[in-house]
Amino acid sequence: MNQIKENYKKYGYVICRNLIDDHLIEDCLKEIKNCIKNQPLVYTQSTHKWQNLEVDKFNLIKESILNPSNLGTIKPLSKTIKNIIYSQKIFDTLEVIFGNNNITKICSWQDMLFDRSTGTIPHIDSWYLDTFPRGNLLGAWFALENIRKENGSFYIFPKTHTLDWQETFEMSHNEFVNYIKKYTEENFSQKKELYLNKGDVVFWNSLLIHGSTKQTIEGLSRKSLTSHYFTFPNELITSSRKYPIKVVRKKLKKINQRSFYRFYSKFFSTSSKRHLFGRIAQTISNIGLKVGPMWDMRSKSEKKL
Ligand SMILES: O=C(O)CCC(=O)C(=O)O
User: Fold this and answer.
1) Element (H or E) spanning 192, and its range?
2) Which residues 6+ apart lie within 8 Å of 163 measured at CB?
3) Ligand 1 pocket, 154 CB below 6 A?
4) Of the candidates 255, 216, 248, which has an alpha carbon nearest to the alpha carbon of residue 230?
5) How far apart (Å, rounded) are the C-alpha atoms in residues 268 and 40?
6) Which of 226, 230, 239 should be mutated for ligand 1, with most atoms under 8 A from CB?
7) Atom of ligand 1 minimally distant from the CA of 222
8) Rounded (5°) CA angle 65-69-71
9) Is 2-304 assigned to CATH 2.60.120.620?
10) 66 to 45, 128, 170, 281, 286: CA distances (angstroms)
């Protein structure tokens, strides 16, 4: 266990093999299949809009789903995702990495489900969401199947969490994207693609550059989940606002007896109210009105994301 913490600290990431029990993953895969069949209303991470789940010509979900653990329109799938991201082994590993024996609350903030790789651009999470002071938010990437180069893989740039990113937090989104792009092109030899097996999990620091490659063989899936975690008490920051400890406390909801909590930051994209909104939107779309894809739920300041 000490090695896990040391590697995380030194390289900014650590891979933990075989951390998720097979039956939990199988339950989740079964529910993904059901969703593909039923095409429920979801909120996608790439478009930031409600839309009926869309599949490509290979029957793979096109876009990543934002906060699937918390969507009232896909409850059976949500439940299987919660069983994975809030499992005992994840709690124990996070406790080691966060390095505090007296943690009373491990909180999650934003999760995503991918059926295929969308080729996520290189970035650091801290520009979008982090603790304040920065660097105490941790991402976790869960492989739901064996993933190789052909599937499109998650990659990281080791040790970049030790660089000074301060000036990027003053930049516009475009400037930030170009800055990281330039860095990754100039340091291409350091890029490390991670080929994970079903059940493996990689944990990375919010200041580490990461992203994902596109599949090299069309039609190959890349079933994976991500979730981000922090410990309470901590202040939080996004590109558009800060959450003082008092506000964070108010927005935490207990998930299970393992002292996992969920941080509900936004009304439409993460709060329980969105279940109701999703149902209303689905009813409207069922009667033939075009809804969802036309509505961008982000506030003006967030639309730059
Ligand atoms: O899986 C991916 O394509 C990228 C995930 C990611 O960048 C994140 O969760 O921060």
Assistant:
1) strand 192-194
2) 207
3) yes
4) 248
5) 17
6) 226
7) 1
8) 70
9) yes
10) 5, 14, 26, 17, 22
What does the pLDDT look like over 142-172, one tens digit per residue?
Answer: 999 999 999 999 999 999 999 999 999 999 9
Length of the chain: 305
Res 153: pLDDT: 97
DSSP letter at 152 equals -
13 CA → ligand 1 middle, Å: 14
What are the per-10-residue average pLDDT scores of the chain (305 residues)?
Answer: 92 98 98 96 82 94 93 92 97 92 86 96 97 97 98 98 97 96 98 98 98 96 98 94 95 90 71 58 61 42 42
Lookup: tokens for 117: 């790789």
Judge if pTM exceeds 0.85. yes
Ligand 1 centre distance from Cα of residue 63 (Å): 12
